[in-house]
Amino acid sequence: MEECQRLGLTKFIGVSNFSSKKIEAQLAFSTIPPSVNQVEMNPAWQQRQLREFCKSKSIIVNVFSPLGAVGSCWGTNQVMNNEALKQIADAHGETVAQVCLRWIIEQGAIVIAKSFNKERLKENLDIFDWALTDHDYDRINQIPQHRMMPRDEYITPHGPFKTLEELWDE
Prior knowledge:
Elements lengths: L1 H5 L6 E4 L3 H10 L4 E7 L7 H9 L3 E5 L18 H10 L3 H11 L3 E2 L6 H8 L8 H8 L22 H5 L2
Parallel strand pairs: 1-2, 2-3, 3-4
Protein name: NADP-dependent oxidoreductase domain-containing protein
Pfam families: Aldo_ket_red
Organism: Citrus unshiu (Satsuma mandarin)
């Protein structure tokens, strides 16, 4: 990477699924700090500690699986079927997906929601003319937290991560 930087080929780098601890380790030796960290985040996995850490280091949080990735092998319906989110959506005349996307934007993160459906693509952009209320935030903050992709396959007695807590710094 240093050679690429010296040649002017690299000015910014991004990381994916880096925890606070892993970013700290990377910052200790890298000449180019990460400008973005792409992580799983949604109202059912809010990543509060990591978001605050990234903010303190001027690292942008880019979100994947903002709606829970229903239908994928790692996905969950815990986001789209959440009763609190449904009630918030109904109160605003929006969809659960719009509530989730709006919540992410209000957290200061960026999101690119995957869809091949033209109507949903339009709907995903229709989140900027309303805002969540303090009451909405109280309800969202009470949603039980659950990581969709724990990554058990990275845990091994002879590898660098022997427990999920070590892998994710929890």
